[in-house]
Write a structure and sequence with these properties.
The complex is a heterodimer of chains A (108) and B (113).
Chain A (H helix, E strand, L loop, with lengths): L2 E3 L3 E5 L4 E8 L6 E6 L6 E6 L3 E5 L2 E6 L4 E6 L8 E9 L2 E4 L3 E6 L1
Parallel strand pairs in A: 2-11
Antiparallel strand pairs in A: 1-3, 3-8, 4-5, 4-9, 6-7, 7-8, 9-10, 9-11
Chain B lengths: L4 E3 L2 E4 L5 E6 L6 E7 L5 E8 L2 E4 L8 E4 L6 E5 L8 E8 L7 E2 L3 E5 L1
Parallel strand pairs in B: 2-11
Antiparallel strand pairs in B: 1-3, 3-8, 4-5, 4-9, 5-6, 7-8, 9-10, 9-11
Chain lengths: 108, 113
């Protein structure tokens, strides 16, 4: 079966650091993706991990542990515009399977 | 390079009518995916197509829903005899041949009255 879990909601303060966790159990694995989706808009690609470890891209970093079925997205120096949903997705054979997303609210 | 184009952006139908949603992938992309998103929920995979072929339709409801990606023209998701439960945002995504990353369109929001 396929199961991808992430927290439903998180809040944080502008300028802070937030970590969004994702655990997965899937029958196949071609990589772990993170997408950002603002309300009413299209999801946009943030990061991709296929090997264990940390991938850093500006204020955003993503970590993967394949043996633990675990990933996290780290957002540093939070800005108000980072308020959005963050979707964890697992590459499975020929498609991406998405979690339900974590809605992040950044407060001033 | 234009992104993934979906139309219509908004569509209102009465119960029992048909809905047709169109998607033109990014230039150079030959793989098209359709996802459905209900309010406050995640993206649910529906179908994966290449030109003239349905590769994986494991997420498509067995009845009333169909998808195609003809040799010429956009991919079309067709919903016959719509019901209120079909109200959702339908996102199309395309990917290049290496299929690593999906690029999403802005979505088509279907409302069934």
């Amino acid at each position: 079966g396929q199961n991808i879990d992430q927290p439903t909601e998180m809040t944080a303060t502008e300028g802070a650091i937030v970590q969004i966790n994702c655990t997965y159990q899937t029958s196949g694995f071609n990589g772990l993706f993170w997408y950002q989706q603002h309300a009413g808009e299209a999801p946009t690609f943030l990061s991709y991990n296929v090997l264990d470890g940390l991938e850093e891209k500006g204020r955003f970093s993503s970590f993967l542990s394949r043996s633990k079925g675990y990933s996290y997205l780290l957002l540093k120096e939070l800005q108000m515009k980072d308020s959005a949903s963050y979707l964890c997705a697992v590459g499975n054979t020929d498609k991406l399977i998405f979690g339900t997303g974590t809605r992040l609210q950044v407060f001033p | 390079n234009a992104g993934v184009m979906q139309n219509p952006r908004h569509l209102v139908r009465r119960r029992g009518q048909e809905a047709r949603l169109r998607c033109s992938p990014m230039k150079g992309h030959s793989h098209v995916y359709w996802y459905r998103q209900l309010p406050e929920e995640g993206l649910k995979f529906m179908v994966y197509l290449q030109k003239e072929n349905i590769i994986d339709e494991s997420g498509m409801p067995k009845e009333r829903f169909s998808a195609e990606f003809p040799k010429e023209g956009p991919s079309i998701l067709r919903i016959q005899q719509v019901v209120r439960g079909d109200s959702a945002a339908y996102f199309c995504a395309s990917s290049p041949p290496d299929r690593r990353e999906l690029f999403f369109g802005e979505g088509s929001r279907l409302t069934v009255l």
